[in-house]
Design a protein that fits this description.
Structural class: alpha+beta
Number of helices: 3
Order of helices and strands: HEHEH
Radius of gyration: 16 Å
Number of strands: 2
Amino acid sequence: MDDLSMLPDIWAAPLSQGWSVFPLQLRGKRPLCEWKKFQMERASLEQVREWATRECNVGIVTGRISKIVVLDLDSEEAIAEAKRLGIALPTEGCYGV
């Protein structure tokens, strides 16, 4: 991305990491656009600037395009299994059931 300085941090921070983003409903998870294309291509800076004018959340596309893998460990058993498998987990603030 080109110049991110004019974007709110909520948009600039993930873009500066090279992550593919799209808008979500405010205080929700429902996409406000057809987001699947952003699994293959990143939104243009012009498009992100337009989204940044809305009141919305920021969605981050995981997987190959953003080089992010997410593990949803939503139970004590899942956390225990991840630990058993030797998966490094954050020590604070990111998980808990």
